[in-house]
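Hi U.,

Before I forget, here's the chain from the pilot set. I'm dumping it here mostly so it's searchable later in email.
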Amino acid sequence: MAEVNKPNITIGIPTYLRPNLLNRALKSLNTQTYKNFIILVSINGHEEEVAEYKKIESTVNYNLNIEFHFQNKNIGSLNNFFYLLKKSQTKYFMWLADDDYIDNDYLKICYDFISNNSKYVLVSGVAKYYKSGELILIFHDFKVKRVEKKRLNYLFYDLRSPNKLLYALKW
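Structure:
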């Protein structure tokens, strides 16, 4: 059985020039029914670009286990994603984009499934896209183009994703 205080899941949030959206993502994590996780936020950009993020870091009053990592320069989107994956020290890892938010039972459902089904290495929800508060698109199907095994990490690629990288799960 896992230690109560040791997180089972790392949620990596890469962000660049969107502090208002980061706040919304953090609010959705604050309402999770499953609480045994840590959040790593990597802020990409130069010192003058991260001032608003520093305000969030100093005023965040959510009941969250959260670490802010400020990059000294713009390291690029993909490097920001992989920085978070490398920092993860938990059994499970997920990315959450700074403009995403999740249902309050999302982590519980995913964790319960993956921890009780050892043949699976990936859990994903249904992606719903909203514009001005109106649901405009739902992705139900998920097609894996390629799976690579690198240093005990499984990387999953999706043909629809602009940068082809969908999720990584630390195994």
